[in-house]
Structure formats: structure tokens, C-alpha cells
Structure prediction request, 479 residues.
Amino acid sequence: HLDITYRIENRILVCDQNIDEINQTTQLKKSDINSYHKYFFYKNKRQWFQFILVLLLGSIMTISISTNVSDSLLQENKLSSGIKQANKAELYTGKMNDSYIANGVDSYYIGDAEVNLDISTEELNRIKSIKHVKSVYPFDVFDTINQMEDVSKGTVYYQGSKTQFDYFQEGSPMVVPYYSFQNIKVDGKELKGNAISQSLARKLGIDEKEKNFKISIDVYVPVQQYTYQCEIDDSKTLGTLSQVLTKKVNLEIEINHIISTDDYYNEFLSAGYVVLMNDKSFYTILNQYNNQTPDSLLDSKEYNAAITPYQSKNYVVEVDRIKNLKSVEKEISQISNNFITYDQYNSVTDMVDVYKEERKGRYIFMAVVILIAIFLYVLVQMNALDDRKNEIKLLKVYGLKNQTICSLMNDNTIVQSILSLLLSIPGFFIARKIGFFVINRQSMTMSLLLFMIIQIGVTLVICFLYICYSQWFVKKVDL
Prediction:
């Protein structure tokens, strides 16, 4: 009995076959048909090359899609959260010397005391009289370092244990005042008393649920100041500088709460070691030491400068509504060109706009890479399946049903999908290392989980589309 006959007619090889005449006993045994793992390895060199190429293209495609989608979702969530946290109608202001402003400063921050000039009583009253300004408060900081005296290490004591902080390696703690209008919440209730940040609590080895304990901290309290004229940046231009003189004081502070950055969002302090003290207690201490003898006069004798009591150089302004922040900032700048202002809300929203604009270029590049990968992936997959036409015909000749043949054809895709999922794990860490997931770096578990969910979803969609196409292709192949 012949399944297929070949004959030569006019120098052409002609194939004759009649499936209906094939004896059923000639079909493959069922056990052999179901040996899919054996059939998977039945490939020639060309087919193995196609398999590996599809695996690489598929991995690049799915990992790229998953990385960009998950990173974008995390970024949008983080940026939205940042805007929500910075949703405060307050701005900070200070007066800077001309040279400092001329060097391109376009935002305000609590910087080196040398560049902060005194705000006069008249200027302060003009700020208070601006429409939409509800109140104006001084804003000072007790630092645990003093760079003017080459002190870069701060010290905090807790239960007899001493903890040192190196400013240049990890930052140093600061004692900062807070005000009732800032409406800081802890466990849903308004903050009362003093608090420390979670990062400081961890550094000191304090349980984050601990309440009502004491710490001792060495701080440099501003006590006096002097103003002098000096050449700025070797430009031979005289500028006004103000130097603050400090006194080292050991403060014993009762801490009532430990707060997270979500409870007190402040761009100056959100990542640092912070002690929050209510404004009345803070300024009681500041006033107590004001005009006392400082630890060092620094260069006051060299400049023959007159020493005066310390005056607050930075202020926080309470505004009635967020939408009025920009107009208040504009009016403050009109009082004097030396005024610099900063508000967290507009700073965060502007940063979001800049960040989104910067991401466009990266997304366009990745979109091109993904589209090329998709095109090549589809092309190679279709070519690989087309190469198996004769194989499909032969399987049909031996009586295999279309469904069984489809299962054999889909083995490659299933194995490729599993391997692609395994490759996606190192792919995630490589993407993280080259700059993705930076904005959500503090929550790697959440980033990886979202990435893997999207990766699995993309892989399942690709598998589904290929299976649908392979079923159509197998049906289309005629004997």
C-alpha cells in the first residue's frame, strides 16, 4: 500500500496522494502523538535559529513594554502624590545679596547664612499688607553642624547612647519649627508637641511606634551677626554679606511622635533627619540665647564689622489660597529685587511638567525600539510557521487533527513565553540600574510586582494572538 506516489512527467516531479485510501493501521500510535516534549526538540538548525531569535525579540519587546508602562504608572502616581502632599498655601522668602542673584538663582532655599540679608521692618510690613497674605512667620533652623567652623559631624543622644552623623556622607539632623496653620497630621490628628522623622528614629534605633521619649541633641543656635562688604567670586565687585555667629547648645527635647514624610511634606527636609518643634518652644530657645557671646567671632575683627543681635533672615508666608501663591510671590519680588521666593506647590507642579517633558524623548525612543521589535517578532514568527507547511501537511497525512497539530505548533511559543518571563526578572533590575523606576526607588517590591503583572499580561496577549493565528494557519494548509 502506498500513501504517496511520485512520477516524472515532462521533466516535472508530480506527487499523487489519496488520504481516503490510507489504511488506519498506518497512522502513528497515540502515545507517539502525545510525546510533545520529544516533538519540541525535533528541529533543524534553521528552526533552532528562528526559535532563539523569536525568544530574544519577544523578550526585548515584552520587557520594554512592561518597563515603560509600569514605570510611567509609578511615576504618575508618585508625581500626583507629590502634588497632593505639597498642597499647601504657604511660601518661603528671604533676601539675598545682588551677586548671589546675578549668578543665576531663580528659586529660594534656606542656604548659607552669608548670602541672606536682613529684611527690614518696613519690608516685612509691606509683605504682611499684600492681598491674600494671611500671616508671616520667621523661619529659622538649629543645625547640628557648623561649616564655617569646619564642624561637619552632628551628635544625638538617646537613652545614654551616642549617635554621630557625618554631614558629607549621610546628612545631619536639624531642629525645625512648625506652625499651627501648616495643619500637620499624625494618625489623623493634629500634631501636638515635638516630633522626629522616621529616618532619624531608625538611625537612633527607636521603634516607630514609640511615643513620649526624650533625646538630647547638640545644636548651633544663632546668637549674633555682622554684615560686611566683600569682593564676590573674585569679580572685584563689592557685595554685601551677612555672617551669623552661633553658640553650641545641648538641647534635651521631649519627643511626642514619630512622623513620616507623608505627614510633613517639605522639600527642604523630606529626605533628612528632622526634629520638629512647635514654633513657640523653638523661638523661646532662640530668644533665650539671642545676643549671648558666640563660640567664635569668625572674621568679624578682620572686616572691622559691628556685631549686632541675631535677626531672622527667612520667613514663611501663609496665603489664603493656593491659586494666589504666584501673585503673592510676584508682589514680594516688587518690594525689592533682592527678594527670592519659593513655594512647594508650584515647585512640584513645575517639576512635574519638566519631568514629563524630559520623558517624552525617552518614550519616543523606546516606542521606536518596541515597534521595531514587534515588527521583527511578527515577521520571524510568521516566517517560522510558514516554513513548517510541509511538516503540517505530513502530520495531516498521518491523520492528526487540526487541534493536535496546533498544540504541536504552539509548543515553541509557550516555551518562549516561559523563558521570557524568567528573563524579565534580571531585565527589571537592569532597567532599574540604567535609570528606570528611580522615582519609586524606595518601594522596589511594588515596582517589581507591577512590572511582573504587566509582563505576564503582555505575554498572555501575545500567546493568545499567536494561538489564534496558528489555528487559522493550520486550517488553511491544504494537502
In short: The two ends are 19 Å apart (CA to CA). Confidence is low (pLDDT under 50) at residues 104-109. Residues 222 and 375 are 66 Å apart (CA to CA). The longest helix spans residues 344-386.
